[in-house]
Amino acid sequence: WCTVMKQAITLRLDPPFKSYTPDLAYLGESGLTLVEVKGPHRFREKGIAKAALAAKTYPQFRFVLADWTGTEWKESLLSP
């Protein structure tokens, strides 16, 4: 059992972005996992790009994309 935190962590990024705040974060057996949740909206690509850059910048954390396809949730690992 673990506590899921909502937008509780902000990471600094290099340009073109200044920072990244994942939607969810939790500390599990494999360490800190940061989750970006996306659905069909206009800022979708920018949010995914920020999460991908954060995953490259902070390889010590696990980054996951939770993507709503319109009918189901699809989970992808963004960490290298």
Give a quick set of tags describing it:
single chain, 80 residues, 5-stranded mixed β-sheet, 1 helix, 7 strands, 18% helix, globular
Task: Give structural notes.
This protein is an alpha+beta fold. The protein has one helix and seven strands, in the order E-E-E-E-E-H-E-E. The strands form two sheets. The chain has a five-stranded mixed beta sheet with strand order 1-4-5-6-7, covered by helices on one side. Helix 1 links the parallel strand 5 (31-38) and strand 6. The protein is globular, with a radius of gyration of 12 Å. It starts with a strand and ends with a strand. The model has no long low-confidence stretch (mean pLDDT 90).
Task: Give me the side-by-side strand order of the main sheet.
Answer: 1-4-5-6-7
Number of strands: 7
Q: For the terminal residues, how far apart are their CA atoms?
A: 26 Å
Helix content: 10-25%
Task: Count every helix, treating DSSP H or I runs of 4 or more residues as helices.
Answer: 1
- In oligomeric terms, what are we looking at? single chain
Class of secondary structure makeup: alpha+beta
**Which stretches of 5+ consecutive residues score pLDDT under 50?**
none
Roughly what is the average pLDDT, rounded to an integer? 90
